[in-house]
Every structure is written in structure tokens, then in C-alpha cells.
Design a protein that fits this description.
Rossmann fold, seven-stranded mixed β-sheet, 5 helices, 7 strands
Length: 196
């Protein structure tokens, strides 16, 4: 898979706009401002293929990128407090409708969690949903460079208590600054696609 060969395909604000589920999909999920767009850009060696915003809750659409014969799917960030209830319900229906569609060929969901903090209630709901739905997923802990070695060790011990079935879930620490974890995530994506 040529990670340098990606292009933006489309933004979908409604389920009816989603492209046909005719190829494997790698999906990125996480709360607002956790770094989904940044991770996508770093994995693809691009500066701004996925638009990064400093305003949380900016991505209110499902964004599709095409790479070889695969879709990379950037889901809207969840859990941003300053968005109207109506807007939250719309996002929720959009994300839920996408994930519940068993025609979609989900090869892997990359669930992002900020390494500096305990997972939010929304993070835990999402992880629980992925487990219950038996969807293939890994957890990527973002902003890893912002913690010292001892702080990281402490957070990893805490995650083992905070996240259900943590010992059974593949997790990767990622830094957009040092690119720690980027190669490992690319390998996991390729492995997931080889099983398709």
C-alpha cells in the first residue's frame, strides 16, 4: 500500500451521501481535537490532506480519502460540549449509521485517545460499542510526546484499569511531533488489509 498516494474523495453530512461500500475501509474515531486529522496527515506524509482545525467540533462530516483501492474514513469528533444538542444528535446518527451499516467493509477502526488524560465517558462508550459490535479496532494514544517517561508509565497503568479488556486490545503510543508509532500504525493497517 502506497501511503504517499492518497487523495481526498468526499465529505458526507448525510448517510445518503456515503460512497458505495465497494472496498475495505480504515476508519479513524475519537473525541474532538484528539488529533484524528493530524494522525491521518502524518501517516500519509502530507501537511494538510485532512484539514486540521484548532476549533474543536469542526469536522461535522464523515470525510473519505482514497488510497490505492481503499478508503480512509475520518469520522466527526464526538464529545465537544459547545455544540447544540441538535448538532450532537445529528453527528451521533451519522456516526452510528455509518458504523451500524454491515455492508461497509470495515477492515480496522483506529480509536484515538489523548494519552495525557483518562478516557472520557464518550471514549469509553465508543470502545464499549466497538467491543459489543465485534468491530476490529486498535487504540492509538495521541500526544505521547507531551508526557515524561514516568508520566507515560503511570498513564498506561491507569488505562489498564480504566479501559475494559485493555490487556486484549492492541494499543500504540503516537506523537505527531516525533512520529513515534507512525510506522507501527502503518504496519497494523497493512496487516488488517491483508486479511480482507
Amino acid at each position: 500500500m502506497n501511503f504517499n498516494n492518497a487523495k481526498f474523495l468526499t465529505s458526507c453530512g448525510k448517510l445518503s451521501q456515503l460512497p458505495a461500500p465497494d472496498r475495505p475501509e480504515i476508519c479513524f474515531s475519537g473525541r474532538s481535537n484528539v488529533g484524528k486529522s493530524t494522525l491521518i496527515n502524518k501517516l500519509l506524509n502530507r501537511k494538510s490532506l485532512a484539514r486540521v482545525s484548532s476549533v474543536p467540533g469542526k469536522t461535522a462530516t464523515i470525510n473519505f480519502f482514497e488510497i490505492d483501492n481503499i478508503y480512509l474514513v475520518d469520522l466527526p469528533g464526538y464529545g465537544y460540549a459547545k455544540v447544540s444538542k441538535e448538532e450532537k444528535n445529528k453527528w451521533s446518527a451519522l456516526i452510528g449509521g455509518y458504523l451500524d451499516d454491515d455492508k461497509r467493509r470495515t477492515a480496522l477502526i483506529i480509536q484515538l485517545v489523548d494519552m495525557r488524560h483518562a478516557p472520557s465517558k464518550d471514549d469509553l462508550s465508543m470502545i464499549d460499542y466497538l467491543i459489543q459490535a465485534e468491530l476490529p479496532f486498535i487504540i492509538v494514544f495521541t500526544k505521547a510526546d507531551k508526557l515524561s517517561k514516568s508520566e507515560r508509565a503511570e498513564r498506561m497503568r491507569a488505562f489498564a484499569q480504566e479501559i475494559p479488556y485493555f490487556e486484549d486490545i492492541v494499543s500504540v503510543a503516537f506523537s505527531a511531533v516525533t512520529l513515534e508509532g507512525a510506522d507501527e500504525i502503518r504496519e497494523i493497517i497493512e496487516d488488517a488489509l491483508s486479511e480482507e
